[in-house]
Amino acid sequence: MEDTDFSAEVLARLPLADSVWRLLHFTMAEPWLGDLWDRTRGVCQERILRFGTLAHLVAEALLEHGGSGRQAFERAQEGGRLPVSIGSAFEKLGNLPVPLSEAFLEEGSRRLKETLPDDPSIEPLADCWADLDVFAVDGKAVKHVKRLLKPLRNLQAGILGARAAVVLNLRTGMAVAMSGHLDGEAGEGSLAEDLLPKMAAAAGQRAWVAVLDRLYCNLTFPPRVLKAGGHFVIRYDPHTSFHADETRPAREFRDDQKRRVVQEWGWLGQAKDPRRLVVRRITLCSPDGKQIVSVITDLLDEQRYPAVEVLALYKSRWGIEKVFHQITDVFSLKKLIGTTPQATLFQLSFCLLLYNTLQVVRAHLASHQNCVPEKISNEKLFYDVKRQLVASNELVEVEELPGMLGEVPTASDLRAHLRDCLKGTWSKRWWKAGSSHGGGHQKVKKRVLGNHTSTYRVLEEKRDQDKRTPTLARRP
Question: Which strand (E) or helix (H) includes residue 139?
Fold first, then answer.
């Protein structure tokens, strides 16, 4: 058997690796990477080491080497794929401009979106949102920066890298845009303002709604959302006053869990403030009367946008926090390749793009299992993806891979290939563990004297408590 036949057979037996390599081959095509560099490089120069080569080496570091740039660079140098010294590669990574990192995620995600299967909703949204694109916005600071730079070595403090405000499409589960700043302690509000035209561009001709936390409940940001052509659902902050419309009485009802829901129509801001807005405020209270959450929205029609669905939409905003958690733990954002703010911002952008790549694979697998992709665990799936990528890299020569993948396919051709390639690929291990297995966030935690204890003491205390408690009382 010839080497090319053997390599083709290897990829055929590793469908997850084959899918990821083809998605990266499509998304990170050399002509696009070269054009992206020319448009966003600013004053940076490209002499010997091309940006496309550096980007592919960063992909190898994140996918195969647990975020170790040195491993990827040394292996590339050994194979003749890195034409400069390792120090020069780190230096180029550490000087990549902010607009390049932003456009890399935005345009790369737009290309990936074309390869999704039909109706790839991560978490099915209510019918009332069918005509809207739904975006969640939140900030992310890159942490765990090592003290490799000389000015950082004597600091006894946690070091932050860059910061970015990120937009997540709640329908597809893909990060579609970000606005970055090299200062990890920069204000999130100003970054989010730069995202408004990007959200409008991501929605295209469709209407859209931004789901935001209480930081944006003021008289400056919501009008900018409306001016950009969108709608908003924002958690209410009492620091900005709400004045109910006395001519329109509040409506109150109980939801399926017997919780009290109150709807009010009125104005956000004082009467004398020309910036005041007409809004609907929806407040959810627990059965004992304690307020759980309150949101405001410019979607005033309660028939078209029921209060319960508006509250559920705000709750789905938690999806962006899960994305940040997963790119940190799963895609090696804890282990930074570079330590400069520019390098950390590019790695954040790259991790988000890799997360989107996994969402495409997960969506195709879910379409064959007739389930929503949310039921498939990203962590478990990526574990097997990584194993197959390492296996393919050991058995297939890196130089052969581009030739085997062929010309960059069209989005429709790649979508068809993914559908066929992943059709018989499935493992029960990829199911996400049910809520009965734990997880989530514990709202109330018991304080411990001294802020530390031992496992032995906790278990002994639990045994003593069980001995003092009658058997019947311990039954659920």
Answer: strand 132-141
